[in-house]
Amino acid sequence: MLRPSHGVGIYTRLFGENAQPDPMARLVVKFGGTSVADIDRIRNVARHVKREVDAGHEVAVVVSAMAGATDRLVGWCEAALKTRRIFDAREYDAVVATGEQVTAGLLAITLQDMDVNARSWQGWQLPILTSNVHASARILDIDGAELIRRFGERREVAVVAGFQGVHKETNRITTLGRGGSDTSAVAIAAAIRADRCDIYTDVDGVYTSDPRIVPRARRLQKIAFEEMLELASLGAKVMQVRSVELGMVHNVRIVVRSSFDRPEEIDSHGNPPGTLICDEEEIVEQQVVTGIAFSRDEAQISVREVEDKPGVAAAIFIPLAEADINVDMIVQNVSADGKTTDLTFTVPAADYQRALDVITNSQKAIGYRRLDGATDIAKVSVIGIGMRSHSGVAAQAFRALAERAVNIRAITTSEIKFSLLIDAAFTELAVRTLHTLYGLDKAAQ
Ligand code: ASP
Ligand code: MG
After folding, report:
1. 144-153 pLDDT, tens per residue?
2. Which of 126, 285, 328, 435 sees the fewest Cβ atoms within 10 Å?
């Protein structure tokens, strides 16, 4: 296979559609915090890496900080403040980026100890160039040339500290936001034109729904980028949303798999166990519905009897945006009398009171009659790219929920999903009912 011998920016195109595993592939493998929680687990990670190297693959490893390490570092930053309310984000980044530096070095030592040629890399050493929005920087470009050269010349494994980069002008260390090492991994995979990016984690794949709520949830073999993006944004906390976006833009095939599988029992030339996140073209047997997500972390706000005239929605949502409150579902009715209407939307439950205050403060500008809301609600979402070409998918849900006396407060739809707002008490019933309705249940054992 042709390999570029020079630096490849992450905006360049990636590999082709090789559906079969490459006999000798270039891989990015990423290990999260629980997978590197202690020295024993780091050794287990090293055995996974060695297996891939022994199979002839070129490997770049991306690591998170040891479980709990980042939280501890953040806690120290907070504890260091006595008089100020917020800290200097540049210094926050200087502190929290250290967690990954430790694991990268430890894994390189462990690999060397197993006679695998390995070298650690921090973000600034590659470099991984980012914007200067400290604590939630975006990756702009990655120079993978040196890694590629070393794959070829020394068969050297690169162990890259995830979550961090460097701002291209100020030269200061940046971090990518919590959970950001997923994004590091996918971006590096794009930059070095990896054949695959394996995300090793404490679950063995992506499920049709949360197995804690739906015991009959099934592990998906494949899921399309767009569906995964919806799942991730709607509360399935498998991967950082931005990493999925990046995978979609650069068509990086991503596999979510378990780091607790025994390294020796896996055939590095076969199809990896886990869930493949890929382009929809690669999914031959497409189901209409792929997954059911839900979130109980939202609150509903209804602004009653607002005047039906231009500018009202702006008067409501601009102050909310200025207060940095993320609005999700928005439903407005068409007014019957041409004078007033109701407008309902959802916000994160944590911002509920603040959102009510913002609206109350803008009462004059908005001109509404009443304001009410609820926090004991849940949003249940049904996702599947098959919905684009099938009609009546949502209608089936309405009937099934009605039969179980689940009341729907609000409905929103998009091309590949619909979301229902219901009373929180009915979450489990609704999710299980829909899971069965759309044929997602695994066979009884
Ligand atoms: N260590 C960072 C965090 O805990 C980044 C990551 O694990 O992805 O958020
Ligand atoms: Mg994570």
Report:
1. 999 999 999 9
2. 285
